[in-house]
Specification:
Layout: H1 10-17, H2 22-29, H3 33-39, E1 48-52, H4 61-69, E2 74-77, H5 82-91, E3 97-101, H6 105-110, E4 119-123, E5 143-147, H7 153-162, E6 171-176, H8 183-193, E7 199-206, E8 209-212, E9 227-229, H9 233-236, E10 246-248
Parallel strand pairs: 1-2, 1-10, 2-3, 3-4, 4-5, 5-6, 6-7, 7-9
Antiparallel strand pairs: 7-8
Length: about 250
């Protein structure tokens, strides 16, 4: 007589589920309540980034509850609408990494609600920033990335000198397509304001050529090692900070 199969411990199932893709996890999750609970465990979603596009308006409360159970701490937000940022700040207040695709005043204003924010990336700002660029939580930011964000000369200068208030900043990326003269002086001012930077990446076009951080530079004020890189690979990475992270649409 055939015996019923011996049920596997939850630890074994969790180990198996770690090898599944996000699509496969979603399929397994839909099979039964037991697997749904196991798949939503935070250990299976470490380093995962959710991409919020709001294609059909606000997401459901069940959607946000699922993300909180998974302890999702990284998000790409592709919306400029204030009401969407309100929903994100309420649904995922514990985000430590935020990528903004498209910038306006409301976007930076709502960042103050993310009290755990440590990594911030801003991409593809359609409007020219003429006023001061204020970053909330700047005292706790460790990584800041600005790609295709055009400042006026006055606002850019003010931002560079404000870097002294980013007391924990260890990585700075600034890539833009607008012509900017004297990029070497810009590097000097950045290193003067933040001598403890460990990574600095600049890509600033000058005419037909470019002035990047791999060119001639003054000696840094600090003797600590500093990685100097250039190019646009960083900005094309969906999560902006780590190539090993997975960026997926909400399951």
């Amino acid at each position: 007589m055939l015996q019923p199969p011996v049920p596997l411990p939850s630890e074994i199932w969790s180990l198996v589920f770690r090898y599944l893709s996000v699509r496969d996890k979603s399929s397994v999750r839909a099979s039964c309540k037991y697997f749904k609970k196991l798949v939503d465990h935070a250990s299976l979603w470490k380093g995962w980034t959710v991409v919020l596009t709001f294609p059909n308006g606000p997401y459901s409360e069940q959607f946000w509850n699922t993300l909180r159970r998974r302890k999702v701490s990284s998000a790409v937000v592709r919306s400029r609408r204030a009401k969407h940022w309100i929903v994100v700040s309420v649904g995922l207040p514990g985000l430590s990494t935020v990528v903004i695709e498209g910038l306006n005043r409301e976007s930076t204003h709502w960042l103050k609600h993310f009290t755990c924010l440590k990594r911030l990336a801003v991409r593809s700002c359609s409007s020219f920033i003429r006023e001061s660029f204020v970053v909330p939580q700047r005292e706790q930011l460790t990584h800041l990335s600005l790609c295709d964000v055009d400042f006026s000369f006055k606002s850019l200068r003010g931002f560079i000198f404000s870097l002294s208030r980013f007391s924990r900043l260890t990585s700075l990326v600034y890539h833009q397509r607008r012509i900017l003269d004297n990029g070497t002086r810009m590097i000097y001012h950045i290193l003067s304001c933040r001598p403890n930077l460990k990574h600095l990446s600049l890509n600033i076009f000058r005419g037909l050529g470019s002035c990047s951080s791999t060119g001639t530079k003054p000696p840094p004020p600090s003797r600590r090692p500093l990685a100097l890189t250039s190019g646009n690979g960083h900005c094309s990475n969906p999560t902006a900070f780590s190539k090993t992270q997975k960026s997926q649409a909400p399951p």
